[in-house]
Amino acid sequence: MAKRPNKETQAKYNKMVDFGCVVCQKVYGVYTEPCIHHFTGAGMGLKSTEKYIPLCHTHHQGKKGIHHIGTKNWESKFGSQQELLDWYIGKNET
Ligand SMILES: [Zn+2]
Ligand SMILES: [Zn+2]
């Protein structure tokens, strides 16, 4: 967990922080300051599938947070984490 991100990962984090919370951007079209949320993609047990998306406090640990209401509940409201990541990538990498 305390693995230090390398430079490339750090640059991606910074870009995500500049972009803002994916849910707020996608659903409400507004910027809110995020932190990086990690999740594990498909491919159970594969180390290399750790992924991350930027989420604001509300959508992360707050009232509507994925860690608060649970992944299933959250994904049924806002879309799957993978979908949001794909959307983010579509916006940022052409
Ligand atoms: Zn948000
Ligand atoms: Zn998280």
How far apart lie the N and C ends?
31 Å
CATH architecture: 2-Layer Sandwich
Q: How many strands?
A: 2
Percentage of residues in strands: 5-15%
Assembly of the depicted chains: single chain
So what's the CATH class? Alpha Beta
- Fraction of helical residues: 40-55%
Average pLDDT metric:
90
**Which radius of gyration do the C-alpha atoms yield?**
13 Å
Number of helices: 6
Number of domains: 1
The CATH topology annotation reads as Herpes Virus-1
Strand order, largest beta sheet: 1-2
Could you characterize the architecture of this molecule?
The protein is α+β, with helices and mostly antiparallel strands and 94 residues long. The chain has one domain (9-91): Herpes Virus-1 (2-Layer Sandwich). It is 51% helix and 15% strand. The protein has helices spanning 7-19, 22-28, 57-60, 66-69, 71-78, 81-92; strands at residues 34-40, 50-56. It has a two-stranded antiparallel ribbon. The longest helix is centred in the N-terminal third of the chain and has 13 residues, at 7-19. The chain is globular. The mean pLDDT is 90. The structure holds zinc ion (ZN) (2 copies).
